[in-house]
Amino acid sequence: MPITLDKRLAAVDRLRQENIFVMESERAMTQNIRPLKILVVNLMPKKMNTEVHILRHLANTPLQLEVEFLYMATHVSKNTSNEYLQNYYRTFDDIKDKRYDGMIITGAPVEKLPFEKVDYWQELSDLMEWSKSHVFSSLHLCWGAQAGLYYHYGVDKQPLKAKLSGIYEQDLVTPSLLTRGFDDSYKCPHSRYTTVYPDQLAKTGLDILAAGKEVGVAIAATPNMRQIFSFGHFEYTRDTLAEEYFRDQKAGIDPQLPVNYFPDDDPKKKPKLTWSLAASTFFSNWINYAVYQETPYDLADLR
């Protein structure tokens, strides 16, 4: 939230230089305030789990948010009932005449497929095109980040020799309000078979905010933060990677043990939670700096 101060206070100019949102008391008296409208495009199979993961972080702000969930109407969900989706989710046709302050596109377990082979690719492409004029800031996560890069910039994902699964260290590369409050290096879960390398973004105009030796590009964004691409899973809980590991093991896939995750690499031991602070900081920064402080009060003015 902004800090409301008397504009004559000596600290005001210094705080503004540090990008601390300071509101003069005169403006606060006349400010129009409304809830921020957030659209979550949930592409994950277990949608209710992902809802909790995302909402836990979105709720970590004193701002009032109105959150809607959207599913792909051209895809038949195997893990979430159609009745649940029809009752609690929207389709693109339902919302295409609306505007939103922010949008999140989640990951999806389809990274081995070419984008055009994903059964809902055309619908998702239409949504991403629509977002250019109907969403102020779009946050793409994991496969959603790869899909966004491919659609908006023609940058294709690259296959890895083995699945990237575990807790990896990333380094900050370019200063950004999105990583304000981060340490120079931070940890984040990753779970994917493909990646994007820094040299692939050379001609896109995107800023690489963070990267790592194992993970490649970790976070990239346009300078104005209207398009943000995060390739990790900040939203994962302590147990999510363990659930994926045991699921794959049960399916006979013989998965590799997630790196830097189970203490002593023992799956019987409780995983350590080492990314919670970075995760809450990242989502709070997105809501505050990329959405709240920049979006127009009247979304009809969105350009």
Automatic annotation (TrEMBL):
PANTHER family in the cross-refs: HOMOSERINE O-SUCCINYLTRANSFERASE
Catalytic activity: L-homoserine + acetyl-CoA = O-acetyl-L-homoserine + CoA
Gene giving rise to this polypeptide: metAA
Site feature (Important for acyl-CoA specificity) residues: 111
Pfam families documented for this protein: HTS
Keyword Transferase carried by entry: yes
SUPFAM superfamilies in the record: Class I glutamine amidotransferase-like
Sites where the protein binds substrate: 163, 191, 247
Function text: Transfers an acetyl group from acetyl-CoA to L-homoserine, forming acetyl-L-homoserine.
Marked site: Important for substrate specificity: 191
BP-aspect Gene Ontology terms: L-methionine biosynthetic process from homoserine via O-succinyl-L-homoserine and cystathionine
Family as reported in the entry's similarity comment: Belongs to the MetA family.
A GO cellular component annotation in the UniProt record: cytoplasm
Enzyme Commission number: 2.3.1.31
Molecular function in Gene Ontology: homoserine O-acetyltransferase activity; homoserine O-succinyltransferase activity
Name of protein: Homoserine O-acetyltransferase
Catalytic residues, chain numbering: 142 (acyl-thioester intermediate), 233 (proton acceptor), 235
